[in-house]
């Protein structure tokens, strides 16, 4: 059984343009074409498309997905099992976030008391959902170093690492109405720079670029500003000052 490109796109929930792009970069080339040049996708092609979309959901860039799928040792079943584990973990974290949101609503309405610790239950930055953007902007080295170090940590160490990260966010949020160039702000943002470099190898330029992405990408902004409105912008400005002053 084969499908034309429009049928395959509709089935997978992607655009025809996306499938054209995958073909152009050699990520997913349809196995067959008609005499008139129309692309035809086989069941095997659709299985490959499913794998691509799973990897995209987990934040892998297309270049990396292509490398993985072209590896002669790639095991489809093993990959699906890993996808399942990752998605279940993602669902667990989302479920916890929903509980935190519901409890926060009740707290705001005066129905329950919520401790400061409970307000941040479910927040977990140990797995960066924007790994794709980081890899595309600055290459794999810093991100891969962070991933390897995190993978070697025990669950307790990962929790401590996440708690340290959240503590820095809270500290910076308390300073967000100060000048980003102030001594207090620069001291706090230095802690952030040191913290990031414990896990990876971020240059001053990469550090400055990361701060800009906190504002350019609304998903970053939304997550960071949960610690205090305007924090993402404050961090961007403080990171830029720190990078420029320490070159």
Automatic annotation (TrEMBL):
The keyword DNA-binding applies. InterPro entries: DNA-bd_dom_put_sf, MerR-type_HTH_dom, MerR_fam, TipA-like_antibiotic-bd, TipAS_dom. Residues 2-71 form the HTH merR-type domain. Keywords: Activator, DNA-binding, Transcription, Transcription regulation. The keyword Transmembrane does not apply. CDD domains: HTH_TipAL-Mta (cd01106). Pfam families: MerR_1, TipAS. PANTHER family: HTH-TYPE TRANSCRIPTIONAL ACTIVATOR MTA (PTHR30204:SF90), REDOX-CYCLING DRUG-SENSING TRANSCRIPTIONAL ACTIVATOR SOXR (PTHR30204). This is MerR family transcriptional regulator.
